[in-house]
Amino acid sequence: MTISIKQIKLKKLNMRLKQPFTTSFGTMQDKSFFITEAIDDKGNRGFGESVAFISPWYSEETVETNLHVMEDFLIPILKENEISHPDDVSRLFEPIKRHPMAKSALEGAIWDLYAKSKRMTLASALGGEKKEIDVGISIGIQPSVKQLLETIEKSVAAGYKRIKIKIKPGWDVDVLKEVRKVFPDTPIMADANSAYTLEDVEHLKQLDDLNLMMIEQPLAHDDIIDHASLQANLDTPICLDESIHSLEDTRKAIQLGSCKIINIKIGRVGGLTESKRIHDYCVRHGIDVWCGGMLEAGVGRAHNIALTTLNGFTMPGDTAGSSRYWEKDIISPEVTVKDGVITVPDKPGIGYDIDEEALNEFTVEEKVFEF
Ligand code: OSB
Ligand code: MG
């Protein structure tokens, strides 16, 4: 079977988060991003979402580099080549270096299109079996410890299965000690978004007394060497986020002992096919994985949910319910979380309908490519 794409649409959306989200790098509230749509000869419509931000603080990609790379390089590749399975897409994109989020945005739409054309869920097309997935919540840096404690209290009451707390120098060990006093047994982890260096080893060692599930990306965004030194000095497991862009990065990081856990983000690794490869490799090597989040709108959220149905996703992910982020999401129904669990939708493809009215409302620019 060939996937015969007739049209690709790129829609640029502007959406405003309900609340600002603060990491060690700064604060964001306004999101601008691409929704991709691939339409086949039978009128099936597949959707993807790019997780690149407006500015390159998380990785080098931006909304504008996405447009350049999709329009000038990736879409021409899709036009010129036959695709019989979505796994072909990452191979076809290989000659283009990096730009994983741009690649993933298009590959995701083709995965959804493929699953819909086969009348199966994206989850089962990927080989996922779980009908429910456990989710946690990621809490940004708060103005005060009091506000952090209140936010954790609400998240625990809502049933989230683990609490991730963003940290940075000056908002770390002391804050987490206060948190532990109030929540002695809650599954808690910390995410530094690369805020430390090896000079902080002694400081970070204090985390070992706090029974954290893991510390995510403590050191540089492009490092796996120093992380190995740090892990050798820390009992707390290190989880890598920013440093892992591929199965090859994963293999090297595990071989070096740079981490014990991997956060898989579909956009950061170039798509669902590469995510699955990393998942499979980690399962074979006894490494826990979980699905990270990038403050996605509904389409990206649906892709994360489908991926998380694979059995190796043993730890709760960051994909919380739509209403935590948005007044109104672009899918119907919105993603809801009950007792820390998302029920995987059973409709074909991503399993959620696009709320066309909402999609139109947030779209500020559109480009259509005829095949
Ligand atoms: O480091 O995991 C991260 C959000 C934006 C960019 C990077 C990260 C995050 C989060 C929040 O931690 C994840 C989410 O709630 O979608
Ligand atoms: Mg992270």
The hetero molecules present are: 2-succinylbenzoate, magnesium ion
Q: Residue ranges: pLDDT <50 for 5 or more in a row? A: none
Q: What is the end-to-end distance?
A: 18 Å
Q: Helical segment tally?
A: 13
Strand order of the largest sheet: 5-6-7-8-9-10-11
Broad structural category: alpha/beta
Strand content: 15-25%
Q: In percent, how helical is the residue content?
A: 25-40%
Radius of gyration: 20 Å
Q: Say what oligomer this is.
A: single chain
What is the N-to-C order of secondary-structure elements (H for helix, E for strand)? EEEHHHHEEHEHEHEHEHEHEHHEEEHE
The biggest sheet, with number of strands, parallel, antiparallel or mixed sense and barrel status, is: 7 strands, parallel
Structure in words:
With about 375 residues, the protein is α/β, with parallel strands linked by helices. The chain has helices spanning about 65-80, 85-95, 100-115, 120-125, 145-160, 175-180, 200-205, 225-235, 245-255, 270-285, 300-310, 320-325, 355-360; strands at about 5-25, 25-40, 45-50, 130-135, 135-140, 165, 190, 215, 240, 260-265, 290, 330, 340-345, 355, 365-370. Strands 5-6-7-8-9-10-11 form a seven-stranded parallel β-sheet. Strand 5, helix 5 (about 145-160) and strand 6 (about 165) form a beta-alpha-beta unit. Helix 1 packs across helix 3 and helix 2 (about 85-95) runs antiparallel to helix 3 (about 100-115). The longest helix is centred in the N-terminal third of the chain and has 18 residues, at about 65-80. The protein binds 2-succinylbenzoate and magnesium ion. 2-succinylbenzoate (OSB) binds near residues 58, 292 and 318.
